[in-house]
Amino acid sequence: MAQVLNTPSHSLKEFRILPGYTPPNGNAPNVSLKTRLCRKDDDFLHLHAPFLSAAMQAVTGGDMAIALAQLGGIGILPVSQPTDEQCAKVGQVKRFKAGFQTNILTLAPDQPIAEIVEIIHETGYTTFPVTESGQFHDKLIGILTDKDFDERRDLDCRVASRMKTDVQAGVELNSLSAANELMIRYGRGFLPILSKEGVLQAVVFKKDLDKHLRHPNESIDEQKRLLVGAAVSTHPEDRERVEALIAHEVDVLIIDASDGHTAYQREMIQFIKAHTSAPVIGGNVVTAEGFRFLVESGADAIKVGMGIGSGCTTQEVKATGRGQGTTLMEICAARNELEQKQGAYIPIIADGGISGPAEMSVALALGANAIMMGNFFARYTESQGNLVRNAAGEVVKEYWMEGSMRAHNMRRYAQTRENFFEEGISGYVPHVGSIHDKLPTIIHMLRATLATAGCRTIDELHEHAVLEMQSHTALMDSQIHDIVPTNIDQRIL
């Protein structure tokens, strides 16, 4: 007979954190969000901000992984792409030097201006190096900006006829301060870095330098390079993918599977641990039994959550899954019990059911060390989804689940073309701008939450936080009510 648990499953939205005592030096600026991501050797791999971008086609590419690592988190490159493409993006992140870009869109001299206008409208980029072949690592012959031509009359012209050829550049520079001095001297916001032979090696944008100065808490490895993670499947053929990713110096591997409590996941974890020194994060699971299974299999951290993503339909079509609040309570209790018995601490990553700062705070308070999000990061300019304009004229970003028909990530769900069914949908999310402009505010919100709870670190939050489940009416009171917001159009009578 089936076992039926009578206690209802709870979401993160049902909890509130009770205030604690905030001492004189316990305000938000003095709060640290440094957290343990996973075990690594005899220590842990740490992040300065508890964020992972989801391993989804619509979310994490090289740009997102770079930006998030600059802000203290880590991007996870999806497995649903050819191995060489995934490895190339790992290399893009690891080669990135704060302020120095080595793989931006580059033009060829014979491209028509009409084509460049389309590129500008699609990407928002306005400054382009021009090389002999149109490839980045080739001899630089000019610079084209959106101010060098007129859309109304120059569409039939070629790049070569409108580009600037008197390019001011740095030669074999590797110092940000030196690059900044040259940009100030030249009065430029863009500086190409060339070899002695004139080959384009990198470019420096003043805005990127400013970003680096504003965000000093980057997630970096021992060689001061940005951290990046990559997903692999449990399929045997992905063992070659693992080896390729390790060769490209990926920092952490994540098993991308909708259900982590399987023999296939154990086999892949054990393969990774036997053949590499890279930490591996297992998942996803929603029970203490699943957590203990992955720990015994050798996982260095556990990702938890099933069927609760904004566009996930797993619970609707398969009736499998659980509320994230209940998942974290049960698994974090199992983690604490394991630590008491064996002295081994296993970080936990909450994946799903998190739509904003309130759910982020609750997930951390319930015991998560970090949080993985898809929808939240898909809204930023740096995500992989295309910018489009909807019927209402609003600019939005494409967003689709890994279980959707568009992703057609059959390997993740152990399906074939003949029997494929969707466990997620495709759609759109609002475009909110650059992650560099928005995420720092979210980080400050989390620090403020910890300060109000009387905690100065995430570890203190785990130990001292007091949470309370809210009634339906209490939750209604906690939201805007009995007033019409001023952002709704009104007329003075």
List the main descriptive attributes of the protein structure presented here.
single chain, 493 residues, alpha/beta, TIM Barrel, CBS-domain, 2 domains, eight-stranded parallel beta barrel, four-stranded mixed beta sheet, 16 helices, 21 strands, 32% helix
Topology diagram in text:
Blueprint: E1 15-17, E2 35-40, E3 43-47, E4 51-53, H1 62-70, E5 74-77, H2 83-95, E6 100-101, H3 113-123, E7 127-131, E8 140-145, H4 159-162, E9 170-171, H5 176-186, E10 190-194, E11 200-205, H6 206-214, E12 229-232, H7 238-247, E13 252-255, H8 263-275, E14 280-285, H9 288-297, E15 301-304, H10 314-318, H11 324-342, E16 348-351, H12 357-365, E17 370-373, H13 375-378, E18 387-389, E19 395-400, E20 426-430, H14 435-452, H15 458-464, E21 467-469, H16 472-477
Parallel strand pairs: 4-5, 4-17, 5-12, 9-10, 12-13, 13-14, 14-15, 15-16, 16-17
Antiparallel strand pairs: 1-21, 2-3, 6-11, 7-8, 10-11, 18-19, 19-20
Helix pairs in contact: 1-2
